[in-house]
Amino acid sequence: MNSSTFPLFLNLPPELRTQIWRDALPEEEQPALYPYKRGCWHPRWLSPSDEGYCPGPHPDIWMEFRHDLLDNIQLELPLVFVNHEARSITLAWARQQNINIRFCESRQCHIFTRPFNPNCDALYIMPERLYDFYSETCDRMEEPDLFDHFVTFPYSFFYYFAVHEALLPADDDPLVDIFREFSCLKVLFVIVNTPPEFTDHELKVQPQWGPERPEQGRALCWDPNRQCFDWRDGKYFGDEALYRRIEEGSKKLIPGLVSEDIRSLEIRPVCTVRR
User: Which InterPro entries is this protein grouped with (predicted)?
Assistant: First the structure.
């Protein structure tokens, strides 16, 4: 008998079959990388009913990063093609997980996509888009609707960022300024293997890439009292020379951490995998 088949499966009790199908689904909320793209910074004109509104003679404008405008990632859910029972369980699970179901015209099939979740996902800044990331807010504020207005940058609730190790050490300002607009940042993933590949296309859907077991790796932890980074023990994802470069690069972030009074930050070297 072919070891990849189990002809008696349908004779199992329905409850047991259901549990087996559910156990075969992906782990919930696996951290994923979402590539940065221009066009997500949007102004919001506050009204008196909005929290944070400050009355005055000039418009009260907040500049916000709309993570809902990032491309979704595509999830691979092969169970949906097994049989009617597996499909029903998979679709029910997808609805519970805030997963969207879309029809792909080019492939003539349905695909599953997931929007950005700031509680677990990371905004990935590709090396070729670092300048765009750095300059977009300034460019946006020079457009006619905002020119000559005072604009406030409230907290943008991004807790996880990712960059390739080629950007460290950074001799210019972009990563130093990251704390001015994203002071809630908790973890900076530094990708040490081949960077993930993303492309622009009409579907606005990207493949699912994510850090592989980031909690197991070594990490640089910010100590605000001593104003320095310390290594936390863990697995190496590269050679010691690479980790020394990351440590030296992290020192260039210290002025931004101090000026914005950041109390907690981890820099985690990671390998990324496609799921």
Answer: 2EXR
